[in-house]
Amino acid sequence: MPKAQIIDGKAIAESVRQEITNRAAKLLETSGKRPGLAVVLVGEDPASQVYVRNKDKAAEACGFHSVKHTLAADTSEDAVLALVDQLNNDPDIHGILVQLPLPGHIDESKVLRLIRPEKDVDGFHPVNVGLLTAGERDSALVPCTPAGSLVLLKRTLGDTLSGLNAVVVGRSNIVGKPMASLLLQESCTVTIAHSRTRDLPDVVRSADIVVAAVGRPEMIKGDWIKPGATVIDVGINRIPAPDLGEGKARLVGDVNFAEAAEVAGAITPVPGGVGPMTIAMLMVNTLTAARRLLDLPEEE
Ligand code: NDP
């Protein structure tokens, strides 16, 4: 038995989705409107197809109006921009998500910047990035993976993270940077580590909260973890698993789970930790976007 509490992301995500389902039903009752999510997939990337299918299924399960647009890999940039423009102006759509990566001939940032910030449920538009960085989280749409990681932290440690040392390993725009902004707003003392950080093990050892978003299998070792720390492992890495059969693979995080679980106070598993929270937070963002666009007050 590992010493650490295992943070059950699957169960927490399920409770968030249940709450959103109830709130969407109430919205329908009071306003006759359903939150509307449009997911755009360009091309046939198998992983993206799975993500898009899961997002569409989750939205339907929450009682949302859900639309999936699947475009061929050779669709022109202009055609993708025209679709985003159409969705921007569709009153039944409150959230637009363009699945990344886009094929190479399409300028990703041009597409993402065209999405109305109020409908940008991925939280990648510079307006939302700016609002989050400026500490105006309540007017922003926050990227789903860091938002979900924060929910896991609060369900584990309670609502007050103030004064805790947090180390975020990774500085990507979709995970590391927004995660650091969120933790800073919670009054943590935040360090962002990356590939040029010196003495990374020592930096991680100073953390009460470690968020690993590196994309390197089991890079963070057990002896890097301060005893009792809370570890959120965002990484999803597929590694060969010959023990499961020829050509088989298994998913592991960026943290060596077996080692870290002997030292940490609490830790997320991979799979079953942060992963399920990402889709749950997409549902939260879509409902939030719908209420704002419909000019309904935020709920208690
Ligand atoms: P990126 O590749 O965009 O960023 C990785 C970051 O890790 C970079 O900032 C990089 O530093 C840093 N890094 C790389 N190597 C090292 C090293 N040896 N030491 C310290 N830092 C290092 O990845 P993402 O942020 O997009 O994703 C990170 C992980 O999270 C991936 O495994 C991804 O699959 C997973 N993920 C999971 C999601 C979920 O739903 N659970 C959602 C999104 C991502 P530098 O900037 O210096 O290059």
From TrEMBL:
Its EC number is 1.5.1.5, 3.5.4.9. Pathway: One-carbon metabolism; tetrahydrofolate interconversion. GO terms for biological process: L-histidine biosynthetic process; methionine biosynthetic process; purine nucleotide biosynthetic process; tetrahydrofolate interconversion. Pfam families: THF_DHG_CYH, THF_DHG_CYH_C. NADP(+) binds at G170, R171, S172, I236. Residues 7-122 form the Tetrahydrofolate dehydrogenase/cyclohydrolase catalytic domain. InterPro entries: Aminoacid_DH-like_N_sf, NAD(P)-bd_dom_sf, THF_DH/CycHdrlase, THF_DH/CycHdrlase_cat_dom, THF_DH/CycHdrlase_CS, THF_DH/CycHdrlase_NAD-bd_dom. It catalyses: (6R)-5,10-methylene-5,6,7,8-tetrahydrofolate + NADP(+) = (6R)-5,10-methenyltetrahydrofolate + NADPH; (6R)-5,10-methenyltetrahydrofolate + H2O = (6R)-10-formyltetrahydrofolate + H(+). GO terms for cellular component: cytosol. Residues 143-292 form the Tetrahydrofolate dehydrogenase/cyclohydrolase NAD(P)-binding domain. PROSITE patterns: THF_DHG_CYH_2. The keyword Cell wall biogenesis/degradation does not apply. CDD domains: NAD_bind_m-THF_DH_Cyclohyd. Keywords: Amino-acid biosynthesis, Histidine biosynthesis, Hydrolase, Methionine biosynthesis, Multifunctional enzyme, NADP, One-carbon metabolism, Oxidoreductase, Purine biosynthesis. One of its GO terms (molecular function) is methenyltetrahydrofolate cyclohydrolase activity. It comes from the Bacteria. Homodimer. Catalyzes the oxidation of 5,10-methylenetetrahydrofolate to 5,10-methenyltetrahydrofolate and then the hydrolysis of 5,10-methenyltetrahydrofolate to 10-formyltetrahydrofolate. Belongs to the tetrahydrofolate dehydrogenase/cyclohydrolase family. This is Bifunctional protein FolD.
